[in-house]
Amino acid sequence: MVKRFENQDIEFKQEYVPDVRKDILAFVNASGGTVLIGVRKDGEILGVENPDEVMLQVAGSLKDSLAPDVMPFVSIHTEVMEGKNVVVVDVSPGTNRPYYLRDKGLRPSGVYIRKGSSSQPMTDEGIREMIRATSGVSFETARSINQSLTFDVFASELKKKNLEFGTAQMRTLKMIGEDGLYNNLALLLSDECPTTIKIALFQGTDKAVFRDRKEFGGSVLKQLDNAYEFIDLNNKTRATFSGLERTDIRDYPEDAVREALLNCIVHRDYSYRGSTLIHIYDDRIEFISLGGLVHGLTLSSIFLGASVSRNPNLAAVFYRLHLIESYGTGISKIQRAYASYPVKPVFETAEGVFRVTLPNRNFVSKASPSSEGEETNRTHLNRGQELAGKEKEAILQTAALHGQISRKEVEELLSIGSTKAYRLLSSLCEEKKLKPSKNGRDRVYLAR
User: What is the pTM of this model?
Assistant: First the structure.
């Protein structure tokens, strides 16, 4: 009698148990191996009474509980050993790793790998590394570790554009891979997106005095909306007058803010685990995106019009939602927004990071001596604040009369644009005089 031992590629099972799937999973995620059912742990052959039934149980368990499909890499048959029937499950290395337990998902409790003579759960980092190794260099096309995704925000945005949302549309948008599973593009658009945008608001021109901090999560579409609203709330307006004509100049051109923010979301490298960072100072806003430039590009080539998208499928989704007009035009739009001003945006890159700095068009250093013109501008600014106070009072009176008010109603009430209407409403919310309800374009503001 030949003495048998469990090792890196052999596992013994005295009888069929559902947990045999973990050992098969560990083999298909590693270098393959064999499970012998009907053999005791010490190597003694016991055999099984009904090998056909056991083979059916194994096959059924694998089909129902493992994903992606492992059956092309599994062979189940019966061999006679020492006059007894033993069910042999030969497992080859899978080509679509990592494979996992459907009821556990792509997490340590659901992904096993063979180590020595035991099957052990993988770490989160091990799972991510296996995905990278088997999916190529594209983050957005790699399989998502999280397969329990919801798309409430994304579905709502598509509905606003009169676009349908379902499995067929997700395949068209390349959110589902050939294995029928969600990829990382779906993860970014889902409500469970793990990356965030962190915004810090500082007093002055350095980080000495901190004023506020926000972190926005959820779908990248929700992050885009929330981050823009926060920046817009802090994008002040300076009023100047020429005779009876008033001119309002915002600290930062809205088009430049929008393009810098879109650049952070669409072109960052999401294989980095950190957050996108936005720092707001008195004299500038810095947008810091992880990943740097796509390999092979330089700042000079970008200024010459070269464009290579790191996340082309995500860019295509944003294009379909009319959030971007065409590829590779963001930096030129930012530059045009500052064309008539002496201060200019700054674009910088280093290994693993890209930074866009938008200068404040209205910033005057406290160290600079006051001039007659600056004093006049401050007077006009005070007048603008007085006008804003009257406009806020009109909004509050209307909200109190009807119980709520929308941005569209404010636009009609005061004959102003949507940006100013939003700014006034946000200010009233910050002052605790109104309370926002609902999200996106359905948002209304309740009287307190």
Answer: 0.59
